[in-house]
Protein 1
Amino acid sequence: MRINEIFRSVQGETSSAGLPTIFVRTGGCNLRCTYCDTPYALTTTGSIHMTVGAIMHEVRKLKTKRVCLTGGEPLIQPRQEVQELLDLLAAEGYEVSIETSGSIPIAAFGLHPKQRWILDMKVPSSGEMEKMKFESLTELRPEDEVKFVVGNYADFRWSVELIKMYDLDGKVQLIFSPVWGQVTPLQLTEWALDTGIDARVQIQLHKIIWHPETRGV
C-alpha cells in the first residue's frame, strides 16, 4: 500500500471526535474536490510503499486501540491489501473507521465488528458529485456514518434530499460539516435544526486545536 503518513492524534471528526486515534493515511486519490484539505495526499508523491505487516508494526508502536484508515482515498489501494489490513486490525482488537469518498463501491470489502464506514458523500460544490456510487448507501449498517461537507445552502439542500431519497434518517449516523471558511457553524446549525433530521453538526476539531494547515494532527 502507498502510505503518506501514520501518526497518533485526536480524531477531529465523526462520532469519535476528541478521542485518541491512530491515523493511517494512504497516498493517492481518484478525486479532486474543490475544498480538499489534504492536497498533499492527492498523489503518491511523498508517500512510500509499505507492506501490511510494516503498517501493523507502526500502528502497534503508537499504543492506541483506535485506528482511522483515511487518505487520499484508501479504497484505491489494492483491495486484497486493504482487506488484509482490516482483518489483522480486527484480529488484534482495534476499533477501526474507514473514511472513503463514496466514489468506490464498498460492497467488495468485508468489515468486522468494531469496524465502520465513514462515507463522505461529495456535494455539488465539490465538483465531484457525479462520481459518487450512490448504491453504497444501501450497503450501510446502523453503526456506519454518512458525512456531508457543505459549502453553501444548495449543498445542504442536496444533502437533505439525498437523505430522504435513501431513507437514511434514523438508519445510519448522519453528519453535517461546514467547508472550513465558507459556511459558519451558526449557519449550518440553523439549517440542520430546521430540517428535523437527527444529524450531528460537526466542526473539524483538529483545525481549532491546531492551525488549519498543520499536518500530522
Note: Residues 30 and 73 are 7 Å apart (CA to CA).
Protein 2
Amino acid sequence: MLIGELARAKVNLTLAVLGRRTDGYHELESLVTFAATSDVVTIETDAAEELTISGPSARSIVGENLLSRTIALLRAADRRLSIGSVHVDKKLPVAAGLGGGSADVAALLRAIRRANPERAKAIPWADIAAVLGSDVPVCFADHPALIWGRGERMSLVPFLPAMDAVVVNPRLPLATASVFAALKSGPAPPAVAAPAQPQIVSVAGLLDYMRARGNDLEPPACELLPVIVEIKSQLAAQPDCRFAGMSGSGPTCFGIFSSPASARHAAAAIAAARPEWWVEPTILDGAP
C-alpha cells in the first residue's frame, strides 16, 4: 500500500511570548494557519523498512532525525503496525520558522494512521505528537488553530479566510533557541487561560487581528539576522501587498497580497532581485 501525505508549511500569523516558564519553555499564544507549500511524506507498507530523504533541502537536515524517533515511538506502542519504507521529498527550508520538521513528523503520523485503520484506535496519537515537539500537535491536526502553553495546547479555529501570499526565506538557518534567548523575557504568569477564539469573517478582519498582535520574536530575530528586515521591506514594497510579517522564530517572512496574480508577480520580482533566496507564491487557507 502506497500512502502520501502533504507536510504543509505552518505559518504563525501572530505570536505572543508571555514569559519563560519554570520548566525552561516559554508560554506562548499564537494563531496558526497552513500554506499550500509543503514537503511530501510517502510510506509504502509492503516495502522493506527504510527511511530516505530527497529534495532541495535534504542536505540541510542535521541533528536528531525525528522521523526515526517517530517510528520508534510507534513501534513501542504497537509492534504490529504496518509502516514499511518512508520517503520525504524535502522542499521546505530547514530551521525556517515554518515548522517543516514538525510538519514532516505529523504527516508521517497521519500516513501510518491511514495505513492501519484496524489498529489506529489503540494508538495515543496526540500524546506521541506532543512528545515529539511543541509544533507537532498542531501540524498533526493540519488545521488553523489557536495554540498556547509551549505550543502543544490548541483550539481549532472553525474558519479563517484564504489569503494569497508570498513566503520568503534567505536560505540562512536561525535557531529557535537563540531567538528566545535574545528575547530575554521575564517569568511567565503562574496560570494562563485558553485564548479567546477570534471572530473573523473576512481577510480585512484577519489582517486587523494580525496587526494588533504582531510577533514578539521578530525584534530579536532581526537583531540576530538583519536580512529579515530586508525581506520584509522587499515584500512590503511590492504592489498590492497588504501585510508583511515574520513566521514563528524566523527567518521566513510572508506577505499577504490582494490576488493570486499580484502574489505571483511579487514572487517573481523578489526572486529576480535576490535569486539566492527561497521565494514561493502560495495560499494561506489552512485547508488540507
Note: The mean pLDDT is 94.
Protein 3
Amino acid sequence: MTKRPQLLILVFCFILAASCDRKRNDKGYEYFPDMAHSLAYETYQPNPNTVSGTTMILPAPNTVPLEMVPYQYSALPEDRDMAAAQLVNPFELTEEGLIRGRDQYKIFCAHCHGETGNGEGYLFTSGKYKARPASLLSEKMMSTNEADIFHVITVGYQLMGPHGHMIKPDDRWMISMYVKKELQKQ
C-alpha cells in the first residue's frame, strides 16, 4: 500500500517535468511536425530567393490590389471641387443605408465630430485633442453635397487625416448620406 502513493507522486513529477517548455517557441510533443514547422519564410526572415535578400518586399510598381479601384482625386482644393461636382452617390436612400451610415459614423467619426456632428467629440472634450474638429452642422458644411463629404473622408482636409484606407468606399457613401439626411436633416 505504501508504494502506490509514492508511485503516483513519481509519475506526477515525471509528467510535470515532461510538460515544461525548454524554450518559449517549443510547443512540446508534435504529432505532425510538418504542420508545426512551416516551410514558408517568416515575414522578417532573410530569404535567399529574393534580390533584396528579405522576405517582406513591396509590391511591384503600379500594381493595384484585387478589387481596389484607385481614387482619382488628390487632396488639393481644386480636386475637392472637381470631386464634389463630378462624383455621385451610387446608393439610393434607404433605411438600411442610413443605419449602416450611422453605425460607421459612430465607429470612425463620432469620437472627433461628436454624436450629433457638432464638433464636440470625446477626443476634443476630454482635452486629448487640442484643435476643435469641424462642426458638420456649420453653414459651410450644410452647403456641401454628399460627394464633397465622401472626398474629405477619403483624402482628408486640413487637420483631418485621410480615412480612405480604413473605410470601404460603400461605407464612405453611407456615412455621407447619414450626415446629410440625419445629422443635417437635408
Note: The radius of gyration is 28 Å.
